[in-house]
């Protein structure tokens, strides 16, 4: 399946048995500085509780926060784990999509070069739901202001069975700089997506 958007994520090949994406959240923000919060989920064909997807908060942060993110997180070589205060701060600062609270345990947090961008790659266990997530937070413009989240979530018992499909899919992602983060994020369907899905 070929997954294409009009936003920073130009395209991504999705490997394995996944159903087409659907929007799970598309709410207009009250603050005109922000764009539309949007999530696309691709459930697994055989497991409704296993999915991968793309999330964008709609937030185009100000220059100060962007500079702080770059300086403290994305421009550094970081590898963190456990529940130290340094890790909790990094989770919050990396992007508002990550949560640092008592119901989550962070397996790993690392910065990396990712398809021409800087990214934070995180694995977390959700203790209350017994799920594990693998997330790649991509600094799309290189200034720390617009963060996209590629995510994979599965019950802990089947996480290892499907996570490599998600990793392989994320590695094919192609990113663009010429997009407006305030424009509503949408999927693009054309001949390429239809032919690739057959």
What does this structure look like?
The chain is an alpha+beta fold. It has helices at residues 63-74, 85-94, 159-171, 191-197; strands at residues 2-4, 9-13, 22-27, 37-43, 51-56, 79-82, 104-114, 117-126, 131-139, 147-155, 174-175. The strands form two sheets. It has an eight-stranded antiparallel beta sheet, with helices on both faces. Strands 1-2-11 form a three-stranded antiparallel beta sheet. Strand 1 (2-4) and strand 2 (9-13) form a beta hairpin. The longest helix is centred in the last third of the chain and has 13 residues, at 159-171. It starts with a strand and ends with a helix. 35% of the residues are buried. The model has no long low-confidence stretch (mean pLDDT 87).
SS elements, strand count: 11
- In this structure, how is the largest beta sheet organized? 8 strands, antiparallel
The H-and-E topology, N to C, reads as EEEEEHEHEEEEHEH
Task: State the secondary-structure class.
Answer: alpha+beta
Radius of gyration from the CA trace? Answer: 16 Å
The CA-CA distance between the termini, in Å, is 8 Å
Using the alpha-carbon principal axes, give the shape: globular
The total of helices stands at 4
Percent of residues in helices comes to: 10-25%
Task: Estimate what percentage of residues fall within beta strands.
Answer: 35-45%
Mean pLDDT, to the nearest integer, reads 87
- Low-pLDDT runs of 5+ residues are none
